[in-house]
Amino acid sequence: MENEFDATQVLIIDDEQSLRDGAERILIRMGCTVLKASRGDKGLDIIEKEPVAIVLLDMKMPGMDGMEVLGRIMEMGLGILVIVITGYATVETAIEAMKKGAYDFIPKPYEPDQLRIVVNRAREKLQLSMEAEKLEAERRRTLADLHMEQSRVHTIVESLPNGVIVTDTDGKVVLINPAFRQHLGLSDAIGPGNRIEDFVTDKGLCTLVMDISRGKHVDFDDIPSYELDLPNGKFLLARGRPVLGERRQCLGAVLNIMDISAMKALDQLKSEFVAKVSHELRSPLSTIHEQLSLVLSDMAEESEEVATENDQYILSRAKEKTNGLISTIGDLLDLSRIEAGIAAKEVRPVQVGELLKNIVDFLEVRASAKGQTLVLETPDKALPEVMADPMALESVFGNLITNAINYTQDGGEIRASVNQSGSNLRIVIQDNGYGIEAKHMDKIFDRFYRVKTDKTRYITGTGLGLPIVKGIVDSMGGFIDVESESGQGTTFIVILPVKR
Ligand code: ATP
Ligand code: MG
């Protein structure tokens, strides 16, 4: 468009040849391209064929007069600037022409400078309007792009298989996609503008979203994910993140909901399988173990000729191994029971201080075999009781203290302590042993996870202790945390709610 429109293409329509030629000379020197017509109709013909930008139009011509030609040019609506040349220098003609849409006028006869000034002004005007048009086109284009981009993002969010809901800093919903409604079984009746509580009935999840919305979790890492156990048997995993502005200011929260029912079912299947296999293995193993014990005690009574010392050694090793297997299977079964939520067999009020004392007395032997000191610190005043299955609690602290002994060098120090903190008991098991590197910290509570370093390589274990501990503590409504530094030692902190 810009290229075919030549701003300097000037058409002179004048019946006097000397005037046409005179103007042509001036205009060519100004850098214009010049076309000439001796009559109005001829001029109009040229305009139809050529991209004319400016017309110098004589008002007084035989045949079609200037005013009529002007009218025709205006009707064409090509944006041509018409400069009329008024022979009699009458103000009326000039005004009338301007009313009809002429851009400017020059009285006849005129000086070359007069023509130059008027034509230059017209050229500038053309230049400006061309630029304005270009800017306008650009603005329209960016707006269209933006609109396109927004609707594309909108379409993508609408068709996501995961549920998405976005809130502002007050917890008011600003966006919700169909998958979110579908996952939570929400009707279309409530939409954006309502509060998050109107969409999510789970109190804990609402609190989390509100906290994120208000900017409590601007640091990304510490946001817990949240599992929803729906009455229709579906399991949903919800994860929230703050929406941040350019200056990292919190603008609200985005919550993503995923259906993890299939994963849960698989996990359940795996647990059941482990439980079943463990159960099936336990009785034959116990039988083998008993038979080995029997053979061994028979051997001890019989004369030396029948059984060599070597045979006895082999059999006692086999007995040890079966014993280890039986205890692993016991752990697996415990874990299955904990996962199935039937851990606590016999819940009653328990004095944790006393329970710890028994365990410490029992494990003292192991610690002193390694030259370690094992101490228990209890407060002078009596502590409130907790409601628990004492066997399960023994398993918790037995495992933690055994770990402390196992993963601490000879001559190390292990401290167990119990204190009341608000409506909880706080039990701390601390050692100055090998410690755990940060990269393993979130995995040590996983089944079968063991840290293998040069120091721990030869320590036997199955990696089931901590998952059992965590399972029991969680089932009691408690909390377990661990702090550790490689080479410096490890501290396990168990929080248990006291009996109400
Ligand atoms: P078991 O099933 O016999 O208890 P385990 O002791 O290896 O086997 P967990 O009690 O679950 O299994 O512990 C998992 C891992 O965590 C251990 O292998 C060890 O690497 C690490 N760990 C646990 N407690 C400590 C501790 N007090 N100091 C250093 N590392 C520890
Ligand atoms: Mg252990």
Strand content: 15-25%
CATH topology of the largest domain: Heat Shock Protein 90
Which sheet architecture does the biggest sheet show?
Answer: 5 strands, parallel
Helix/strand-derived category reads alpha/beta
Q: Whole-number average pLDDT?
A: 89
| Elements, N to C (H/E) | EHEHEHEHEHEEHHEEEHHEHEEHEEHEE
Highest CATH level, the class of the largest domain:
Alpha Beta
The protein's oligomeric status is single chain
Helix content: 40-55%
Shape estimate = rod-shaped
Q: Could you give the topology of this structure?
A:
Layout: E1 9-13, H1 17-29, E2 33-37, H2 40-49, E3 54-58, H3 66-76, E4 81-86, H4 91-100, E5 104-107, H5 112-159, E6 163-168, E7 173-176, H6 178-184, H7 203-213, E8 226-229, E9 235-244, E10 250-259, H8 261-301, H9 309-339, E11 348-350, H10 352-369, E12 373-377, E13 386-388, H11 390-406, E14 413-421, E15 424-431, H12 465-475, E16 479-485, E17 489-497
Parallel strand pairs: 1-2, 1-3, 3-4, 4-5, 12-14
Antiparallel strand pairs: 6-7, 6-10, 8-9, 9-10, 11-13, 14-15, 15-17, 16-17
Bound molecules: adenosine-5'-triphosphate and magnesium ion.
